Amino acid sequence: MECKKTVFNNGLTLLVTEIPELKSATVTVWVKVGSRHEEAAVSGISHFLEHMVFKGGERYQSAEDISRALDSLGADFNAETSKEWTSFYIRSRVETISNAFDILSDMLITPKLSEDDINRERGVILEEMKMYEDTPMYRISDLFEQVLFSGTPLGLDIIGSKKTINDMKRADFIAFKEHHYDPSKILITVAGGITEEGIKALTERYFISSLHKRLTVEVDTITSDKRERLLVSNKKSEQANLVFGFKSIPYSDPRRHTLDVLATVLGDGMSSRLFTEVREKRGLAYTVRTGVDYFADTGSIGTFAGVNPDQAVDALKVIIDEHKKIAHRIEPITEAELAKAKEYLKGHLALSLESTKAINTFFGYEEIMIGKTTTPEEEFKNIDLVTIDDIHTLAADLFSTPNAHLAIIGPFLETAQFESLLNE
Q: Which DSSP symbol is given to 278?
């Protein structure tokens, strides 16, 4: 599987993946701007704007018009905001893919952004904020990034704060869109039963003729003198939720596949080391999982666990010990573990690519992050090249005590016990 790339004169990039046997296709429009590019006074505006474009434009003048048009296609649609990009997608029958282009271009190029809609959606976002605050299992990831990237834009919540959401005005949205929704920062990915020629024509009709290159947007770099390593959020609850982890490597780092294998061995899957030690052997958690995140200039590896508050210290000890066993080769990774982890990653990637939306994400994410794409077959080869020594060397580099960070939500008034574990 491969995609075909076109860069138009105004800077907009198009990736097309032809899958002739399919009767459907997904169109995803990516904008290379996220919460890390926002000024502090409008923190959360990328996500807020994501909501607002669904409220109507020039041709589809209200949220009802957009919903009616999408429902008439039987389409699947949604949007997402991250710290480095925002994306919008529509999946529909091949025969109606031009309608998807029409709707997306109207939403993104000529959004109405009325004061009334902004005020109504302000309440929706504040409720969304409360939902995350009341759901520690979701909130804990934000707190982990707060402490991991404290003092930098990456440490701020994507959704913003109550103050910034309440203070935003129509002029803020117009200025932000004009500044950041530049064609040189827009990527369109299309996958399914379409042809490159047809999709290029639709892109030119709906996007190229209406978008003119204005400026570029630089990614903020990680610069901070802060050295926070622990964040404890005291909340009365029956379960404590924690993430323990480390700053890591950016997506462009050639050791990325090694990190993916390391995270899999450590805590991804029901036969991983952490799942076995924390859940199966000790019964300390229902969910324990290690994951990685990549950014343009940094990254993270973190282990999430939901545990009984009375057993939080015991669970954290086990989690920390398992990291040390790999970093210090106390219990070296076996050939069997390595082979299993590689097949786990390749299998999950292969299964995910049965979805045209996931195909867009696979190629689009790489284009956003490093300006080029690889094929799934190349990914498989890169995973297979990872060695046991590669994993131990990377773990030793990353899993150092000064680089350890912890965020935890639960009924905790004292932090000394967690501070002690972080410094061991």
A: I
